[in-house]
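Hi V.,

Quick status before I head out on leave. The structure for the redesign project is tokenized and pasted below; the design run finished overnight.
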């Protein structure tokens, strides 16, 4: 709201409560959508690794112009259609290592809360039902309207005739057509069977209202942070502020977190140019979801990022290098499997990765933090450094590919026998013998990588 960087401190003194606008489930999410979701995920992870408790709410838009239009086209019920795309979204989120939100409410499951909010807005003089079956928010009743998106010279087009009102029913519109926006849409033929009863007749809620109603339900009037892609600042978030502040009276979000868009080949993604890539499209071309995540992280969230296949190739290589360096460091410091996420939350000493951590803490500069991971690796020497590395990787949500160990056929039988013997010694906690056998293996040029259940042998 103020365009300043502020320290994030939970307003209730305990839990950092934040909301980000979730997907509209009418097709597969594209990598642009995932840039926004990944950045919100890194925000949460960074807060948690920093020792804060979080409450993360992300909604599902399962009723709007697009979901209704496309479910009818597909000949499916709205519920079945949106569930199908929600399942796909969840699969993609898991592949990208996004932490599931603590609460994931859907618009359709919160119709009564939305109706109640409209009633309150009408009662307080912020909304009106002109008799066309719809209800509109009166933006002239809220002088702060436009503050978040710095809307200048706005023309408040209020009190339109019924014919002119058609444009106000759209979920999305541009800044040059600021008008009273719709809270409840009267039933239309093109909605098919998708309508609910209300005091104003059959219809459905407008898109902007769902977030205000669900935020009130799960986070209350005032909460720590609200996020989404930059396109949501106007009109969506502007409308959310108006609805929520006029009905609840609270301060609403204390901070705003908007991510700049992802471009492809320097241009807006476009269906006709074939540049609206999904995770599946990229997997088909041989890129793993983790390589895509790395690519999405590699630009500072305030700047537009440009996706190209050249840069994705470079990330594939960089992730491999990172995995190799981690594996060498693990061997060097004699560590086991990476620490669990929970054990890294609240870590105070990041060793040679302190600079990387500082960049993450300073307005989530993922680009600079990743650069500093490679610097930190050059100096990393002990277990603290190794832990610091894993804390940064956990904050970035990056998991590393497994380094291929030598095939069984390449391992000399003498080496294999020593390794088996050492594994037995280690399993029965005979540490002295285990160490001695480790040294013998080292002399032969081999190193054992201990996992939880088994080990791998690698040539030095
Ligand atoms: P939607 O499913 O269309 O409601 O969008 C989900 C999220 O993706 C919203 O936060 C949008 O702002 C965001 N988004 C849409 N396009 C892009 C893009 N090209 N780059 C980054 N974020 C985007
Ligand atoms: Zn929203």
């Amino acid at each position: 709201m103020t365009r300043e960087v502020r320290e994030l401190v939970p307003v209730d003194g305990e839990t950092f409560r934040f909301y980000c606008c979730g997907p509209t489930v009418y097709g597969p999410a594209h990598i642009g959508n995932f840039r926004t979701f990944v950045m919100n995920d890194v925000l949460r992870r960074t807060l948690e690794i920093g020792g804060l408790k979080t409450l993360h709410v992300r909604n599902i838009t399962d009723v709007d112009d697009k979901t209704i239009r496309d479910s009818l086209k597909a000949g499916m019920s709205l519920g079945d259609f949106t569930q199908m795309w929600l399942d796909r979204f969840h699969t993609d989120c898991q592949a990208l290592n996004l932490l599931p939100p603590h609460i994931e409410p859907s618009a359709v499951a919160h119709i009564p809360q939305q109706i109640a909010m409209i009633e309150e807005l009408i009662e307080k003089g912020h909304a009106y039902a002109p008799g066309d079956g719809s209800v509109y928010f009166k933006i002239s009743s809220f002088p702060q309207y436009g503050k978040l998106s710095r809307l200048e010279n706005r023309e408040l087009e209020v009190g339109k005739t019924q014919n002119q009102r058609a444009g106000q029913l759209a979920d999305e519109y541009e800044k040059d057509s600021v008008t009273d926006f719709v809270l409840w849409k009267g039933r239309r033929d093109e909605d098919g069977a998708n309508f609910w009863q209300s005091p104003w007749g059959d219809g459905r809620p407008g898109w902007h209202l769902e977030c205000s109603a669900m935020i009130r339900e799960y986070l209350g009037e005032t909460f720590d942070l609200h996020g989404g892609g930059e396109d949501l600042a106007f009109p969506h978030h502007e409308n959310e502020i108006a609805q929520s502040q006029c009905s609840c009276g609270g301060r609403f979000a204390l901070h705003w977190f908007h991510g700049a868009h992802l471009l492809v080949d320097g241009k807006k993604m476009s269906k006709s140019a074939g540049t609206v890539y999904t995770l599946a499209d990229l997997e088909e071309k041989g890129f793993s979801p983790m390589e895509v995540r790395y690519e999405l992280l590699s630009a500072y969230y305030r700047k537009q990022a440009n996706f190209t296949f050249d840069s994705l190739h470079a990330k594939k290589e960089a992730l491999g290098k990172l995995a190799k360096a981690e594996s060498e460091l693990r061997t060097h410091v004699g560590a086991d499997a990476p620490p669990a996420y929970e054990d890294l939350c609240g870590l105070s000493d990041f060793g040679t990765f302190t600079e990387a951590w500082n960049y993450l803490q300073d307005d989530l500069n993922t680009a600079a933090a990743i650069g500093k991971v490679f610097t930190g690796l050059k100096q990393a020497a002990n277990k603290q450094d190794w832990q610091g590395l894993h804390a940064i990787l956990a904050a970035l949500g990056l998991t590393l590919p497994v380094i291929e160990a030598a095939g069984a056929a390449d391992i000399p039988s003498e080496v294999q026998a020593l390794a088996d013997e050492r594994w037995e010694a280690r399993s029965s906690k005979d540490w002295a013998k285990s160490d001695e056998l480790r040294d013998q293996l080292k002399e032969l040029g081999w190193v054992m990588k201990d996992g939880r259940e088994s080990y791998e042998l690698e040539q030095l």
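Above is the designed sequence. Residues 155-163 have pLDDT under 50 and may be disordered.

G. will cover questions while I'm gone.

Best,
W.
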